[in-house]
Each structure stands twice: as structure tokens, then as C-alpha cells.
# Entry
Amino acid sequence: MRLSRPFVAVYTNECKEYCEAAFFSAIQALTHPDYTIHIVDNSLGMDYTHRLNRLCPSAHTIEHIDIDREPRKTLFHRNVAFSLAHLRDQFLATDRDYFVIFESDVIPPANVLELLEEVYDQADIIGGLYYRGFHPDEAFDPQDLRLVPVTHVLSGCALYQRAVIRKVPFRWDAEELSGFPDAFMSRDAVGAGFRLANYHKIKCRHLHAANGGRGLDRLR
# Structure
């Protein structure tokens, strides 16, 4: 059965300029015949939003949201959570079938949506591999093609069934800053009885800046 109408959700910030060309080229070249791209920019000001219109002309929507820059220690958490909440609202206002997040420093394989559809009925949240250190090194073995039940799916490459998105919001917690919105989503989804898994057949590239970081030092 084909994953008929995926809603591809992307949140980004100008701090990801170092990988923007590779990322937006990749998501516009996915081989699935019927997906829409929806982007939220949480940068300071509109300059990067205008740039995104040139970088991703095939996007269905590109929107900017204003987020208070203070307190700085929670800016990243709020950028992610509020952007995902906005994308969630957009998705629920459509009749699209699945909510698929690609973070803007994760390069999925071109057939990632077809790979997700291979196992979509075996879990409610399905993640791909990209984060060495969180995802075990052995999982990146080309021979490892398993669907593995987990309790925490990272949102850099992840499919969420509509029932999950409808019931479980993306959130953050000022008292638990070690947890990011994907951690709370995973915890809340498990508590609601949903099934989570990583599909080891999906192996993505995780791009880092020249200094080895992920651009967060440029977040402002």
C-alpha cells in the first residue's frame, strides 16, 4: 500500500545556512509522487524566510514565526516546540495522511517516504537513523535492515501517524531542559498506547558545520 499523501514538515533557522543547499535539494528530490513540503522559519526577522523561498520554490507553504529571544537558555527548546506546534496545526487542517519531519541538517535517502511506507502499519511513530551516539553504531551496518521497537524516536527523520498528531502535542518543559520536544512526544505517545520503532533500513546523513557543531552557536 502506498503512503499516499505525506505532509513533509520542516522547521529551520538561519543558523543552518551551512547545510541549506544540500538539505533543500534533497527534500525537493524525494522520489515519492505525492508529498507536500511545509516549512516554518523561526529566525530573527524575515530575511531568511525570503531566502527560503528561493532555496525551496517547490514548497507548499513557507511561513515565519516570531519567538521571543529571551530567556536565551530556552530559546532553542521554544524554537523547536513552537515551530512544530505551528506545523501540527497546519497538518491537522489538511486531509494529508502522515506527518513526516525532516530536520534541516538531516539528509534522508531519496526513497525515504517509500521506505517508511513499507512499515507504516507496524508502528505509530517510525524513525530513521542519523544521530551517532544516540542511535547505536551497529545500527548503521548496511546489513542491518530491521524495524526495532524503541521508546524514543528522534524527530530528525520521523513519521507520525495522524492519530498520534491529533492526540499528542509537541511540547517542552522549562523544568526539564535536558528533554527536547521529540523526547516529550515519545514519552507522551508511549503513555497513550502508541507504538514507536526505528527502521534501520533508513540511514541518513547528519551534516555538521566546519567547526564540528550544528550551527547552534549562531542561534540568535
